Every structure is written in structure tokens, then in C-alpha cells.
Amino acid sequence: MDRLRERGKQQVFKANVGIAMQRFNQTQGDHVVQVMYGCEWDDETGITDGFDNHGYDGEDFLVFDLKNTRWISPSPQGLITTHRWNNNRADLEYRKSYLTQECIEWLKRYVSYGRSTLERTVAPEVSLLQKDPSSPVVCHVTGFFPRGVMVTWQKKGEDHYDDVEQWETVPNEDGTFQTTSRLTVKDWQTEDYTCVVQHKSLEEDIVKRVIEREIRRNQDIEMRGYSPDGNPDGSGPSMGVIIGCVLGGLLLALAVVGVVVWRKKRGAGYGKTNTSDTESENSELKPAVKA
């Protein structure tokens, strides 16, 4: 049944792409229809919100106005669909009920199940690394959780942005994360440089001063995933794992996504998506996954 259902969704999306192409007067080329819906809950204030968005080729096409229980479209090509869908009162009420009640209930349940993981924090280990005295100084930060971390450089107590290269944050094999920031200067021995690391797990920032006794070089370095010059050395996550993560993220952006977002602090928005208006589409685009 699940396989048949997914095949049905595939046919709906195929039909929707065709209709959208007609709306935009397109006859050929590769095009993408996207759907994303979900809910938000602030467990401190109790405020909830929800979204159901549809897009075409990465641009907004249809947006569900939860407050007024109606569909709106920033694109003239979507007005036909909004008029049709807004006449289906039963479907409008169903979507509102799902986003404001059922989705929130599932969200709270999943937060309860995963609270120990969602709220755990692991402090980072910070090392200053250098291949040789004339090489860039690398501030390597590893073993931290959650993912968010801020790594900055200071010169004489002031923020320093010149000659700085920040690497991406990547996963370690144990579920923690690592990142590096590289400073390329020749005067590190005569000027007062420091690497400053901020993370949720820390009561105070970690500050590493760039001085000889703090720097580790070559065989003295035991670290996960990076060589003294900041390049992967094969002991950390493999390139295949990293590429797989990137490709996975790209594939998710092209799929029907049921997104459930738990936010400690409300703020960031969400990506947009799109759709068309056949009868089969109108039914299939209802949330099919309950959280």
C-alpha cells in the first residue's frame, strides 16, 4: 500500500509540473514542484504556528494563510489554483486543524521522546595547530554538540577578520561535530592574536592565545579529521560520508517534505515550494505524514 501511495504521489507531481509549465507558458526543460508543511512550537511561551507552502522552480507559488484560513499566491500564475482551493472549505478547515492541533500534538510527543538528545550539550576541545612556524595557524574545534558554534579571531582584544578562512562544520563518527578556522599572518609571534570559541555548552568562552607553547605541530598532534594545515587527513569522517550528507540535503529539497520544527527561540523562516491544481493534486497535497 505504501508503495502504491508513493507511486500515486509521483504521478500527481508529474501532472502538477505539466500544469505549472502551461501556466508559465513553458514547453520544455527541467522543472521542479515542491511542497513543504509543518508546525512550530515554542515550549517557553507556548506559542504555536504552522505552514503549508508550495513552490515551482524554487519560487513561491502557493502559501497557506493559517491566520485567515485561505490560500494566497505571490505569482499571477497561481491565482487560478487559489480561487479553486479556497472554494473547498472542508479542505481549508482540515489543513488548519492539522497544523494547529494534530501536528502540534505529535511535535510535543517527539520532543518528549528525544529531549535527552535534543537538549544534551558537549563542550568542544580547542587546539592551535601549525604545520611549521611559517605556516598558517589553525584553530581546531572538535567534539562539540549541538552543531552551532562560533569561532572568531582577535588581535589585541579586537575582532580580526582579515586573512581568516573558516571551514565548514562537519560530523565526527561519535555524533559530535568539528570545525576549523585558519589565520594566515606572519606577525603572530609579535602581535597578540587569540582564537575565541563560543558554544552553548560553555559558561565562558574558550580563548586560546597564539603563543609558542599553545601551538601543536606535526607528530605532536593527535586530532580527529584534520592535519596541521587544516586539511582532512582521513582519520575523521570520510569524503564519501560528507558527500552523502550534501547529496542527501539536496535530495530532501526536491522531495515532498513534512517538516516538524521545534524552536526554542522563534525566528528563522522556511524554504518555499510550489504546486498545481488538478483534482488528484488537490487531494494528494493534503498532509500525508502526521509529523
TrEMBL record:
Domain spans labelled Ig-like: 124-207
Transmembrane segments: 239-262
Pfam families associated with the record: C1-set (PF07654), MHC_I (PF00129)
One GO term (biological process): immune response
Keyword presence, Transmembrane: yes
Keyword hit for Transmembrane: yes
InterPro entries named among the record's database cross-references: Ig-like_dom, Ig-like_dom_sf, Ig-like_fold, Ig/MHC_CS, Ig_C1-set, MHC_class-I_related, MHC_I-like_Ag-recog, MHC_I-like_Ag-recog_sf
Cellular compartments per GO CC: external side of plasma membrane; extracellular space
Keywords: Glycoprotein, Immunoglobulin domain, Membrane, Transmembrane, Transmembrane helix
Superkingdom of origin organism: Eukaryota
Spans annotated as Disordered: 269-291
Family (UniProt): Belongs to the MHC class I family.
Protein name: Ig-like domain-containing protein
Organism: Aldrovandia affinis
